[in-house]
Amino acid sequence: MMTRSIRELVKLVRQVVDGLPVNNACGPSLSAALSGAIPDAPPDDLRRELAEVAIKMKAEAEENASRQAQMESADHLFDGMPDDMSFEEAVRIKAEAGDLTATAWLRALNSPDHVGRMALLDAAVEAPPGWRREGLRYVRREGSDGPVYDVSLVDWFKRTYPREAAEVERAAAAAQA
């Protein structure tokens, strides 16, 4: 039996998980995909890696549910606004009018964390083939390589281009100062 290092296993697990549709990333589909991709993996190592992936996916699902709830609470910010208005613009207008939800959103949108994350996302979209920006949206071309979701795109960019990512973060922080 050929053995693989933990680093190799982690890389293979990430490749398999990134290649699965989000609704099939857990359960039998993941187990079957991993068994096919890593037939010689030590079972204990594979179970440990799967447990780590499951923990990360659960945290991401919770974060997504929280974001969904936040977005639903912000629906009223578009009331009376043109259909093509960006969220940020609607937030600014409503915050100026004294809307407390809009004011909270404005603080979040102007936070160093958000500004830095958006700068990283903009830089990451330019790095791999297959992603592009269309107005305010980030779009992945079908059949392209690289991360499937924008959250993993930023993580991919930070792993693949650490110096560039650090520079983008420094520039975003300097712009906030």
What can you see in these coordinates?
The chain is mainly alpha-helical. It folds into two domains: 6-69; 111-176, no CATH class. 66% of the residues lie in helices and 5% in strands. The model is unreliable at 21-25 (pLDDT under 50).
Task: Describe the structure concisely.
The chain is mainly α.
Compile the SSE list and pairings.
Elements: H1 6-19, H2 28-37, H3 43-73, H4 87-96, H5 100-109, H6 112-126, E1 131-134, E2 137-140, H7 150-160, H8 162-176
Antiparallel strand pairs: 1-2
Helix content: 55-70%
Quote the average pLDDT: 77
3D shape: elongated
Query: What is the multimeric organization of the chains shown?
Result: single chain
Features:
single chain; mainly alpha; 2 domains; two-stranded antiparallel sheet; 2 strands
